[in-house]
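Box 3.1 A note on notation
Throughout this textbook, protein chains are presented in two layers. The first layer is the amino acid sequence; the second is a C-alpha cell string describing backbone geometry. Keep the layers aligned when reading.
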Amino acid sequence: MLNKLKNVAKALLAITWIRRVYELVNRVFLESFGSSRIMSHLYYTASFITFNREQTAVLRGRRNYYRNKKRDRLTHVELRRNVHRLEKGLIMRPRRDVFARDYITETIEFYEQAVAQCRRDPETMELSEMEWAHDVLTEYFRTVTTGDAMVDAARERFERADHAAEFTGKVPYVKKALSSISYQELDDLVMQRRSVRWFEDREVPRDLIDQALLIARQAPTACNRLPYEFRVFDDPQLVSEVSSIPFGTAGYGHNIPSIVVVVGKLESYFSPRDRHAIYVDGSLAAMSFMLGLETLGLSSSVINWPDFEPLERKMQKKLDLDLTDRVVMLIAVGYAHPEGMVPYSQKKELDTFRRYN
C-alpha cells in the first residue's frame, strides 16, 4: 500500500513537472513571437495551417458573393444591404435633399435583377424582401428632390422595372417610445435563463422552435443581411451524431432532445473587413432565440464550437456545409428536467467590466 502511494506521488510530481516545463517553453515562445506584428507574421507563416480554414473560407466567401449575384436566390444580400443604407439615409436629421448618389444606380441594378427573378418564378424569391425593397425605393424617390441627373436616371429605371407591387408601408417609422415590459420583468427573464444540461425525455414541438426563431430574427444585424442559418435537428439519431462532435457535451450529450447549429454565411460579404460579422450577428440572434425559448417553457445551453480542424471537417461532412459556412455555436434545447441542477455561475461585478469614458 505504501509503495502504491509512493508511485502515485511520483506520478503526480512528474505531471506537475511536465506541466511547468510546458508552460515555461510556451511563455518563452510567446514572449518572443508575440512581441511584434512582424514576429507574429513569421510564426503564422511557418504554422499556416492554424487559421487556414478561416482564411480560405473568407476568400471563397467573397468569390461566392460575386458568383451569387448572377444566380436566382431566395434572398439577395446585396439588395438587402443597399436598401438598408437607403433607410438609414431616410431617417437622418436633418435629411439631405439628395443622398445615396454613390450607390443608387447599383441598388437599382440589384432591384432589376430581383424583379426579373420574380417574374420568372415568384416562388424562388422572398416576396416580403421584394415588398420591402419596393417600398423603401418608392419612399426614397418620393423624398429626394428632382433635378439630379443620376438620381433621376435611377428613378426612371425603377419605374420601368414595373414590379406591379402595392405600397405596403415597409418604410422607416417613428419608434414607440415606451416599453410595456418593465426592467424587473426583463431581469426576471434573464435570471431565469440558465444553461440547462439535463432535459426531460420529451419531444420539442417545432412550432415553439419557430416562434423563438421569429424573436431571433429581430436581433440587430449589420445592414440587415441576417448572415446566418439555424440548423435544427430533432431526429434522435441525428441529434446524437451532431451533439457528439463538439468537446462541450461530454457526460450529458446523450439526453439532449433537440440541437441547433448556428451557421454563419461568409458568402454574404464582398470584403474581408466584415469577416467577423457572422459571429457577432449570429450570437445576437442566438441570445434572442434562447430568451424566446424561455418564454415558451423551454430551456437551452450554449455549446462552444472550437476552431479545431478535425472537428471542423466532421461537422462540415455531417451538415454538408460549404467551406464558406462557419459554425458559430451549438445550442441544446429541451424541457428542463425537474430534478436537474444548473451551475451557480457567479458573474463579474459591474465595476469589473464597466468603464465610462
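Strands lie at 228-233, 258-265, 299-303, 325-334. The domain at 183-334 is CATH 3.40.109.10 (NADH Oxidase).
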